[in-house]
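User: I would dearly like some help making sense of a protein record. This is the protein in question:
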Amino acid sequence: MKIEQLYQRFDTCTGVCTDTRKIEKNDLFFALKGDNFDGNKFASQALASGAKYCVVDEKSYAIDDRYILVENVLETLQNLATFHRDTLGILIIALTGSNGKTTTKELINAVLLKKYKTTATLGNLNNHIGVPLTLLRMDETTEIGIVEMGANHPKEIALLCEIAHPDYGLITNFGKAHLEGFGSIEGVIKAKSELYDYLMAHKKTVFVNENDPIQVKQTQNYDQVYKFGLNSSTDTRLEIINTQPYVTLNYNGSEIKSQLTGTYNFNNIAVAIAIGSYFKVAPEDILNAIEAYTPTNSRSQILKKDSNNIIMDAYNANPTSMMAALENFKQLHQERKLVFLGDMFELGNTAETEHQSIVDYLEANNLGEIYLIGENFFKTKVNHNSIKKFQTFDALKLHLQDHPIKDSFLLIKGSRGMALERILELL
């Protein structure tokens, strides 16, 4: 079936779904395949659950006209999303980066919502499936789409750009993330800059943090750049007033008090303010949006549990984000501080070196008591008796049962797979 014909059927559906457990009446179901499943086998179940049509790529499952047979379901989903995006003609802002993508996306959305009808990526649905689903959620009322793009291998951002056709874009930063797939920090820079490559090739606008030398270098020969940062020569100039415990900054003569901690979040806030300024959102509306934004989902949340105060930053971790969190925590003036760090994943053959580098930093800086959790941290060499290692979460749990923590200020940071938010239950 041609994409134009499929689009006509899509237009009669209420939405798109790839999971039979989440089917809503009159959805268009895409029978995706994975390493351990074949969505074709669930097509009939999708129809029984209320789907109007099912897109399949195995002929034996296409038993009546409710089944739409295509060559490849995933490619069809992506092509339909591109066709839909181009048909609507929505302005698309794309963002990627090693750290802070989701927080930055949510801040941008909060600011732009003050003036525009937006549709933004839900959670971190930012891959080759999530980006098409985000585009297909947009409709005629959407004025600006905000599309988060994630990647752990080269050419993935390039593919997502070919799907989303962004008009504007930004890269939050370049850090030591997904080194297993990118190979090195140079590989990270090259892969993330695929967004710049697309935007520059299509004469689109790039938002650049002037205080990030890599961003400046990667866009130095391009003139459609909107700059922001601490320099007086930028298009949107900002000033840091304080970052402890929350980021406070000056914009347009007004003081903005955010609910986010750390210098690294200043950069995320700065992006949102710059984009709001570019799209002519009133300064007072920008201020209100930033001050009202509350972090969720274990991303730089400041929580209280009994007598303990906690910076919960356990949604994800890599060497760059972990070091930034530790630097921020070091600056906090608190009487009793404790740090819980979980393993960092997807580092490939650099895992041993990167985990040892974190331990070396901890030994050289006084951050209070340190608890390291996971196989990688357990293998590190530790010389300081303030640092305790636990091979498993269960080992940590047993320790805390005998050594309860009270009246302390805690940092909890680790990769998603470590699920360190479970520590809250132990306090």
About this structure: The radius of gyration is 23 Å. The first strand starts at residue 15 and ends at 17.
